[in-house]
Amino acid sequence: MDDLSARITSLGKTVADVSDRSADPATIDQARRRWLSSASPIRRSSRRGLSIAVVAAACLAILAVVAWPRGSSAISFQVGAPPIRGTVGDWVAAADGGDAVPMRFSEGSLVTLSPGARVRVLETTARGAGLLLEKGALHAAITHRGGDTSWAVRAGPFEVHVTGTMFDVGWDTATETFDLVMRDGSVVVSGPLLPPGRVVVAGEHLVVAVREGRMQLAVPSAEPSATPSCAPDPAESAECAAPTSAPLASATSSAAAPASAEPSWRELAARGKYKDALEAAERQGFEQELERASSGDLLALSDTARFAGRPGRARDALLAMRRRFGAHGRSAFLLGKIAADQQGSSGDAITWFETYLAEEPGGALAEQALGRILELKKARDPQGARQIAERYLARYPNGAYAALARSIVTP
Questions:
Q1: Suppose 86 and one of 77, 276, 331, 346 were both cysteines; which one would form an S-S bond, judging by CB atoms 3.0 to 4.6 Å apart?
Q2: pTM
Q3: Lowest-pLDDT range, 110-114, 175-179, 290-294, 323-327?
Q4: What is the pLDDT of residues 74-93, one digit of tens each?
């Protein structure tokens, strides 16, 4: 290798080194001086000297473009009050019975550890950070900075993927229970007992008890909230939604309990015995219950039938609810889920998800409804899927289904 080649090779290594470290202008100047000072005098024709100068100038220009700060440096963070600079890889803990501990990130995000929580920042990038919640709970208010915002929170065997939202997440190591409460926005959760890429939206409360093999999801509603219920066997239902309009054992139910000693379907459902509860409803008069039950009890009866593996009965209860009490967006969304997830009827599912969007265009489940339509259209109607993808990206450019939508629009 001649001297010119050696110098160019040396400069190339310097470019790579500085690029990897995202150097500032001082580092660029230092690299330039180091390269120039290391070169031995070379006798060459003026033309060869000009060639070297041109090549060197081009390489240094590349070095400057690569290394000059472009707002792409990793975010930093501070811990506690008064704040001290945080270090990636160090544990941050909030003492049991003590005060909450704030972690403030340079791009505006705030993570607050509840007493007893222990967290480690695994990494920081220009787009966000990765956190490991070893135990306890935290509150996160993640700043949305555009389409490339990317945060992740690991808690036990679960991972929460975030783009910009507000939520509470907890992990109980003793009971192996994951707890997620969405305050704003949406996240994608992966982990045991969950369907792939489970989207959780504002107002929903997800609890997964790994050791018990139990998952429950409370879904927002405009009506009064109630105690969540869930399917004890994940194989019986793809997911578990809580009746939110009235408790399963409702004190305001329009139907009085039978005079016999046999437990009512409400009591059995409240214990998580969904198959027994549905059988009891059948014995006590399912069709009659559809005509006399309150709106909340019809929603609870639908959930009971879904978790018992009887989607037809679940559909009957929701249709009765809509017929007797008027259109409710959430009932349309659930009818879409039943059609898609349990009855394999994508056409009906799309119709009901569109009905939800018409009834509650700004509802908490709107993004998920449009995302489900996108998934269903992709499998059966490529042209229609493209139109839905464009519609989704126009409304949710950074949503949970944005990557799928972009893959359809620009294959």
A1: 77
A2: 0.45
A3: 323-327
A4: 889 999 988 899 999 898 99
For residue range 226-274, list pLDDT tens digits in order: 333 343 333 333 333 333 333 323 323 333 444 456 888 988 877 667 8
How far, CA to CA in Å, does 16 sit from each of 10, 74, 126, 151, 375?
10, 19, 20, 28, 42
Closest CA to 75 of 114, 112, 103, 102: 103
Cis peptide before 82 (omega within 30 of 0): yes
Q: Distance between CA 279 and CA 129 in Å, rounded?
A: 50
Residue 275 CA neighbour count, 13 Å, CB half = 5
CATH 1.10.3720.10 fits 77-212, yes or no: no
- What own/partner pairs with CB < 8 Å and gap ≥ 24 does 180-187 have? 180/205, 180/206, 180/207, 181/205, 181/206, 182/206, 185/144, 186/367, 186/368, 186/399, 186/400, 187/160, 187/161, 187/162, 187/400
Q: Specify the amino acid at residue 73.
A: S
Every domain of the chain and the residues it spans: 3-67, 77-212, 285-409
